[in-house]
Amino acid sequence: MSFEHLPDGLGIGISTPRLTWTLPTGGGSQESYELELARSGRIDRTGRVVSRDQVLVAWPGTPLTSRERVTVRVRVWTAHAAAPSDWSEPSGVEAGLLDVADWNAVPVGADWDEDPAADRRPARVRKDFRLDRPVTRARLYITGHGLYEAEINGRRVGDDILAPGWTVYPHRLRYRTHDVTGHLVEGGNAIGAWLGDGWYRGKYGFDGGTRNIYGTDQALLAQLEVTYDDGATFFLATDGTWSAAPGPILTSGLYEGETFDARLHDPDWSTPAGAAAGEWTPVRAGSRDLGTLVAPLGPPVRCTEEIGPVAVTRTGDDRHLLDFGQNLVGRLRLTLDGPAGTAVTLRHAEVLQDGELARRPLREAHATDTLILSGRGPLTWEPRFTLHGFRYAEVSGWTDDLTAHMVTARVYHTDMRRTGWFECSDALVNRLHENVVWSMRGNFVDIPTDCPQRDERLGWTGDIQVFAPTASFLYDCAGMLDSWLTDVGLEQLPDGTIPWYVPVIPGEPTWTPIHPGAAWGDVATLTPWTIYQRFGDLDVLRRHYPMAKAWVELVEGLAGPTRLWDTGFQLGDWLDPAAPPDDPAAGRTDRYLVATAYFAHSAHHLALTAAELGDGADAERYSALAGEAADAFRRRYVLPSGRMTSDSPTAYAVALAFDLLTPSQRQPAGDRLAQLVVEDDARIATGFVGTPLVCDALTDTGHLDTAYRLLLQTQCPSWLYTVTMGATTIWERWDSLRPDGTLNPGGMTSFNHYALGAVADWLHRVVGGITAAAPGYRKIVLRPRPGGGITWARTRHETPYGTVSMSWETTATGLTAGIVVPEGCEAIAELPGCTPIALGPGEHILNTAELAMKAA
Q: What is the pLDDT of residue 24?
């Protein structure tokens, strides 16, 4: 049993959370279910409900009230069972603070003068309190302006970092609920928090960054609620009675890195003894619209892996170069013991140039951490309020030997549940897929970012729009993306314009003021649809429908009666490899062709969304609009010969994948696309728009062999070129590292950028053979299409209903496939050369030779 899209039900912000459960293995399809809710000393049961629904089922009882905890169980009746299943294990869901009136806290922070235009030393805040009897339950509801890490009695609360994450703070500030029962003792206690600038007031963005985007205050807002064993309660909220003092963190920034002076650190600061140490002064109490506090829709950012260096090389008297063998996003943890005042500096980079850290691609992100030792014995330390993208690190200021066991890279990202896997007989393709996974991990850090290392790290709408199908296979990212799309809607301009990136920060002169742009703005229509298709969440469509509708109606107005969107600023097929390094939008494809194609595509998906929501009038209106835009597209961009005015792979890929051509035009267009690919020796000639579509366009027009040639090319530009050059993540540019080993000279050269890894969705569906044929994979098409000399593939996905997998290999007589269909689902197996076969839940072994004999 699970609740909404959350990893657990603690602190949920929805009074009627939807329920999802998976069926017992081998039980067959569900015919009915019964839910049991244990709440406030009573048991409520629904009785037997005749329904096949088991994903995001409506809450069956009265709504939760603030702080209320309910235990839920389910049992099911399946087709061939005489009796119901056993009850599921109990799962607890507990509401957070659902009403503004539940909050008594105010933001508190340092009350000393600061220069808002300069780096500011972060504060710590604390409060002593007493508990006069045993505790049975305690909850900490916590958030802040900036970043925070809380401690109670010297013990860290939770394991999330960069809390409360990045939202459109004036409208939505997340709070999180922690069970802190085990932190408390009878008698004297203390609570405290480290504070950091983060996105709230730190320097962030382009061209030197902008400070204080959301405010100048750095503050904690927290509420501790304790229940004693006799039922009495104790409340402690942040208010003017708390104290503040400068902490041992001297400077901290997401781009800049962090400086920590261990000489200034008293490890007992968050215990009752800590009040006597340090210069604690009264806090300044601020204000906050408590109606903007919201509970999370997805998991927080956590450490998900630790990696040791594969090589440590001394490069000078006090310098060591570390190679972790993997481009990752995270921080270093050091264990050192040295004289007081020894300053050890850590610098980071994704690649080396001439044996040194290649720092130019970071632009103004200094990515430098400094530890000043206390001389009081061994110290284990890592920064708190920063994050870096790196494979290599240089440690300077340490004259002794530095060994691998003294340093660890800790990998951080939103702690989503992994749901998708792929591997095949080609080792380079496997590495490519692994690179896609690592790039997703590094860029799903509370919001979906473009890159994790340089002075950018923004929620670019176009990048996730093209990558969402891949992301939704690899990880359960529905809650995280739903939360981010909520912010997209909040940042949408009154005329319907979708910003280039969300949350919006200054980006003069190119990105501010904001202009509507195709492919980027279409995140409003296409990404909610992807989430619905992959996770079966109709409410995502419902909640984001107004945003999608406003976007399409804006473009309708911009296109006018001609239905051609052929004016205004457009990025087109961004980063087409033919574009010059200093002008990534100058590709081979007419950018207005791309814009009009996306207009038709978004209008079509808006019509589909309206139909799913039961709005027949809107469905009819936007379907007609999509048809008009498609007609206009053909009139303007398709020549009488069947060729396109932009004779480029992206133009044909867009026209084919978006179904904008007449039946008689499709095959000539597919043939021309294949011809262009072959004439260029199957090297990539597409950018952000064309790359996710080109293999499907080839496959669907009978050119599967050409799609495989494109996939398996190793010459630049190609997907596997980057692999042969040692890439362990997806690059922003096809030639971020050139064949001669030099860096691309462009001003934007990231080595961790997932957009061009959107081809992994084709790997999962076409090579692997798993396609969702109904929302949430309730119906599945299993259709592997081998080629390119690949002799086997194994693909697995954890759907909302359970595991679907396809494992195939070619043999002397055909193809053998091992298939698992989840309980509660149905599938169609379409193996090469065979009649489609309907499959029910369970394991299946199919052989094309045997199937051919039966058909004969």
A: 84
